[in-house]
Design brief:
Layout: H1 2-43, H2 47-79, E1 87-90, H3 91-102, E2 110-114, E3 122-125, H4 127-143, E4 148-157, E5 162-169, H5 199-210, E6 215-216, E7 228-230
Parallel strand pairs: 2-4
Antiparallel strand pairs: 1-3, 4-5, 5-7, 6-7
Length: 231
Amino acid sequence: MLVKARYKAEASDRLKSAFLANMSHEIRTPLNAIVGFSSLLASTEDVAEKELYSSLISHNNELLLNLINDVLDLSRLESGNYSFTIKEWDIVVLCREVAAFMENKARSGVKLNSVFPVDSFLLNTDRFRLQQLLGHLLSNALKFTPTGEVNLSFEIDRENNTVRFIVSDTGCGVPEEMAEKIFERFEKLDDFKQGTGLGLTICRNIADRFGGSLYLDTSSGKEARGACFVF
């Protein structure tokens, strides 16, 4: 028992150290930008420069807020200190709302498609958490897709009483050996991409709370382009 307790304490310390190291880096990046551009904003009289610096400050404020929200949200999810509000929602409407919100995050040359098999489908779900999960998946897809398209769709399997939500893209893809590892906390495919590496962990937690599953579909093989996530 004492040995197990010691290993558990050591594992906890390692996680805490990893958390602090990651948070230190991720928080410092937008903070430095906010401080730096705020100083430049105060010292310039050029209208175009003022607009540029204001835009950059606003962008980094958003990054910092998203980071803090992700950390707090993951903490709530893992502690179980909240409940889902399950009601009947039209998932076609919910998916279109998410797609419309994410559309302005798409780069020039990237098309966000949302194609559904029916015009309306009622599902008992938590609207906020479902949209949060799909939003994270779409955000990831758009981040790693410089050209091409990102697709949001769902399939209805009436025989198994199941709905499968699918987010696919034509981006850089995910190595097959990373198919499970990317769902771990702070795991990032590209350390130079902005983000905490918490998005997919949050998505997996939400999927588990729904009683569902979330995975990277690798059935197309290594030659397939892009990534395909299924919830």
